[in-house]
Structure of XRE family transcriptional regulator:
Amino acid sequence: MKDSELNLAIGQRLRMARLEKGLKQSELAAHIGVAFQQIQKYENGSNRLSVAVMLRLCAFMDVNPGDFVSGIADAAETSSGDPADVIAEQIRRIPDDAVRNNLATLIRSLAAV
């Protein structure tokens, strides 16, 4: 797995965790002392999320840091590398049916725009 793919996969998990907690990018940014654009860069994979920052964000959101990295290597081996496939696989792995269904509904709504 390339570094850029790893950054994107971790960034997507950050975004999912943030959305599940109902937090804005600006709230996370303020907590770690950066501009909200930095959170955007983490989430879209253009900037690498350091372990130190990940731990601070996870503590703030009350999220297990292991959730950000577990299964990424497996997903990379089974994925075509297409970001849509990676996201779809991550959505399928969400254990909470209601969260998974709400996220799928949101994605369908955004795709229709």
Observations:
- The CA atoms of residues 28 and 34 lie 9 Å apart.
- The mean pLDDT is 84.
